[in-house]
Amino acid sequence: MGIQFLPMVALLVTLAICLAANVIGRAFGVMAVPDGRRRTHQSATPQLGGVAILCGFGIWIIGAMFLGDGRDIPLLRSLLLAGGGLAVVGFVDDKHEIPPAPRVLLLLAFTGIAFTLNTEMIAPALHWYSFGDVPIAVWAFLALMSITAVGLVNSVNMADGQNGLVGSMFVAWSICLAIVTDGTLQSAAIVLCALSGMFLIFNLQGRMFLGDCGSYGVTFAIGLMATLAHARGDVPLETIIVWFFIPVVDCLRLMIARPLQKRSIFEGARDHFHHRLIESMGMRISALVYGGVVFLSSLGATLEPRFALVILCLLCGFYFSFARLSEGEIAESAVLPEEDAKVVGIRDTKRHP
Fold it and tell me: What is the pTM of this model?
C-alpha cells in the first residue's frame, strides 16, 4: 500500500526544497548572482531546481526499490546511482567550475555505470518505424550511446538560458515517455513529469534556476529512460530524434559556427537559438513558442511515429528560419537590452560542452 503514496511524498519533498530554495542556496553557495553582462536577472537566485527535482525523484526511486515487485530493480538502480552521480557532478560544477574535459570523462564514466547496472538498455538493433530494425554490434551501440549521452546532456545544458525552457522540455519528454511505456518505467516518467512541473512553476516566476545539477542529472535520467524504452521496442528511433532535435541541433550549429568565427566553443555567449527567438518575438512569446514547438512536435511523433520524418523536416524549417551562422548577425545579438533580459531572467553562465 505504501508505494501508492510515494509520488505524493516525492512531490512534497520537491515543493519543500523549492519553497526553501533561497535559504538552502545561500547556505550551500549555489546562488546565481547578476553581473550586468551575461547574468542579467534582477537578483541573486538559487540554482536548486535540479536538486529539488532529483531529491524528490530519488525518494521515489528508493521507495520503489523497497516496496515494488523487484522486476525493475536494474532500471531504478541505474537511475539512482548513475543519474544521481552525474547530478552531484553538476552540483559541484554550480559551486566550482569543473573544466570541460573532466566533465566529459565523468559523463562517459556514469554512462558506462548505467549500462553495467542495467544491461537491458543495450539493444541488439536500432528500431526505426520507417526503415525497420537495423542490427548493431554491442560495441557500436555502446559507442553511439556514449556520444549521444555527451551530446544530449551538453545540448540541454546550453539551452538552459531562459526561464521556462528546459523545465517545459522535461515535462514534454516525460509525458511522451509515459505515453509509450508501462510498468515501473511509466511510473518513473509520470513522477518525473510532476516534479519537473513543480519546479517549472517556481522557475517561471524567476524564483529559482535549474542549475547544472538539473541540466546534467535530469537530462541524463530522461536519456536513460528513453534508451530503455527504445531497447524494449516501445518507441522508434526517429521519434526520439524528434524529441531532442532542437537543443541538439543548436549545440551542433554552435560547435560549427564558433570555430568558423575564430571563437571558442567553450565560451558563454548570446548566440543560442532561444536568443534568436527573443530577438524576433520578445521574451514571453519566444519562451511559449520554443516550449510549444518542442511539446507539440514530440507529442505528434509519439502518437503518430509514421509522421516523425515529416515532423523532423518541419522542425528543420522552423529552426533554420531563426538560427543563422553569419558573423554579423551573431555580433548584433551578442548583447541583449538589459530591460528585456530582466523580464524572465535571461542568463548565460554555461561553460561548454
Answer: 0.88
